[in-house]
Structures are given as C-alpha cells and as structure tokens.
Amino acid sequence: xxxxEDNFHMDSPMxxxxxxxxxxxxxxxxxxxxxxxxGSLQLDAIDVNVEPEVKFLTIGMIQPGxxxxxxxxxxxxxxxxxxTLRENSLYNLKFTFTVQRNLVSGLTxxxxxxxxxxxxxxxxxxxxxxxxxxxxxxxxMEEEETPSGVLARGSYTAKTKFVDDDGLCYLTIDYSFQIVxxxxxxxx
Length: 188
Fold this sequence. Notes:
The strands form two sheets. Strands 1, 2, 4, 7 and 8 form a five-stranded antiparallel beta sheet that branches. Strands 3-10-9-5-6 form a five-stranded mixed beta sheet, with no helix packed on it. It has two domains: 15-49, no CATH class; 53-180, Coagulation Factor XIII, subunit A, domain 1 (Coagulation Factor XIII, Chain A, domain 1), CATH 2.70.50. The longest helix has 11 residues, at 28-38. The chain has helices at residues 17-22, 28-38, and strands at 53-62, 69-72, 82-86, 90-100, 104-115, 118-130, 133-140, 144-145, 154-163, 169-180. By secondary structure, it is mainly beta. It has two helices and ten strands.
C-alpha cells in the first residue's frame, strides 16, 4: 500500500472503548450514534487494551451459478490460495471477521493485481467502522466482473491487505488466479 505523507495529518491518541463512550455525554446526536454503533455491548466485559483486534476467519468469492470459493484463515499454505475464474463472469468478494477490544475505525480493503509483473489493478474500498462483539461480521463487497478477451486471459498474482484509519494492518494475503475462456469446460 502506498503511503502519502501529509504534513497536516495528526494521529489522534487511541482511547479505551469505555472512555470513548463516556466522552461527549451531553451531545445527543453523538450519543445516539455511539448507541447505534455499539448496540447492547456490555462495556464491563470488554478488555481494557486500547488497540482493536481484528481476526479474519474466512475470505472468499460468491459466483452466481457456481460453487462459492471460501478459504478458512489462517491459511495452511505459505504460497497463498490459487483459483480459476471464467472471463466475463460476475462475482462478489466475501469476508468474515471478528472485532475485539476496541472500535476499529475505517477498516479498508486494499487489493493490488499484477500480470506478468505489471500492476494491472489497484482497488481500495472502505468497509466501515466496527464495534467489538462476540458474533462475527460478514461483509459482501459490491458485484464485480472479471475482464474478458485474449489479453485478459492468463495468470495473475495479487496481494490483499486490510488496514484501518490508524494504519494498522490486520491481514495481508498473497494469492494467484487464472482467468480462462468462458466455456462449459472451465472449472471454478
């Protein structure tokens, strides 16, 4: 991920969740926003550590008419996942993760794709801000379409990262995939 230096940006100090909830008690709209974000969270049960802990459980792809591709994390292979996609096909990325200890603010999906050593795609999508809770979050990205044509077919390598507003990286995963001709003999 490229870092752009900004002389005007100052990181705000990390504050424990309980202290964040107690701030600005007199501001009705802010209090409602915090209640909506945190729900019925029991603050006494929250760890007092300041930094949030985000653990990704699965990462995968939903493809209409085909079986979902799902990888359970952590991966057992050091090479990362490998899979095949049909050209000109629709898909959604799907992530399952937990948040513990503190709010994670501005969780962002960052993906870079290379073909033959050349960067061919760079995507950065803000997923959102998440409160700690026992149940995992599931996030499904907007539908995308694989490229098509002779030049699009072939082998790709990629790197995905999940980072927050403070620059903390919660997952980095390298993977590779092939785009093949969209015929009935292609395997997903």
